[in-house]
Design goal:
single chain, 428 residues, alpha/beta, 6-stranded parallel beta sheet, 15 helices, binds alpha-D-allopyranose, binds manganese (II) ion
Length: 428
Amino acid sequence: MIDAEILERHNRQREAAHRRDLEYLAERLARSGIALETVLDELAAFEVALPTWAMAAGGTRFGRFPVPGEPRTVFEKLEDAAVIHQLTRATPRVSPHFPWDVVDDWAALRAHAEALGLGFDAVNSNTFQDQPGQPHSYKLGSLSHADPAVRRQAIAHNLQVVAWGQELGSAALTVWLADGSNYPGQMHLRRSFERVQESLAEIYAALPEGWRMLIEYKPYEPAFYATVIQDWGSALLLAQALGERAQCLVDLGHHLPNTNIELIVARLIGVGKLGGFHFNDAKYGDDDLTAGSIKPYQLFLVFNELVDAAREGVPGFRPAYMIDQSHNVKDPIEALLQTVDHLQRAYARALLVDREALGHYQETGDVLMAERTLRAAFETDVGPLVAEVRRRRGGALDPVLAFRESGYRQQKARERSTPATAQAPGYA
Ligand code: AFD
Ligand code: MN
Ligand code: MN
């Protein structure tokens, strides 16, 4: 953790300017009939889970550039996650990935997390890599594989991941498959989908009480011709076939360029199948860039659908908000601090949308005023709102600068001087 004195000094130095900015924003919102305290209360409820696999530097298939002091074990990843939560006050849970985060003593890991003020969100299985000593290879697929022995091994792994998740207090399993084909003819397009549905049904039938399955779709991997769960339609067909506790996971980077993601989010909300998100941003592919760094307006429009559904009280609407990024050139902790801030800003802007006016303009066909109503919220500088929520909860007014002032990275570089052995999530 960061020394409380450093954090207090950081906030003291910025407090006066922050107050002036907040007072000005409060006055501006009041002009639109928006009460600052109401927005602050709603914003304070926003929480997002941190991915363990993003705490060390990521990588591409060409290589990885380690960061000094990056975590070498899941225990150290939790220490770094705790610093992010200390500064943002919005990341009380971590999403682990197995077998990368497997430990011998689950009680010790859970106790370590709890001592750091952390819990666990969805657990992630991994049948996209072969592990040492694994009897059957996933080279040509896993839950969709033509060989039932491979499918049985992949199903067993997912059930094992759920059991590990139960040890940690998790209540959701995220399934992302790299199952697919590289050439036409390689895989029977209908039968591979039927097989993945049968395999997922076996896992679903064994889900513990209160657990959900989040089915993550993705259109392609480099060198792919087709993936088995390639889009929201495939994920939805599977979720509807499996049952009420199976839903779709929307990873923002898992869409072909120019896809209207907010429209997909609206469709899934409409049928109770929006299970959650892997937040990131992308320019061309599954770039796993900092959320909001490339398409901030799209991120706002996604949150606009989420706030609209929450305000309307759509039945069963409780998406799991999680981050999925890979930090190849930014310091992982700094990138995640920035990401959480960007997500909170998008959420805050969506909270400012005048929904009554928007509904009126939509009903009356006033195109320009409907768009202008959305843009008015998007163009509001909500920085002081987000900073105030952090401050009131004991966080940092500016998390990235507070982190840099703390010297935490340099301290970890000294403490964790032996090279990271944690398996990077990159493709190297
Ligand atoms: C990769 C996949 C997918 C998955 C993540 C963690 O594209 O997004 O959720 O790894 O397994 O990014
Ligand atoms: Mn993902
Ligand atoms: Mn991805």
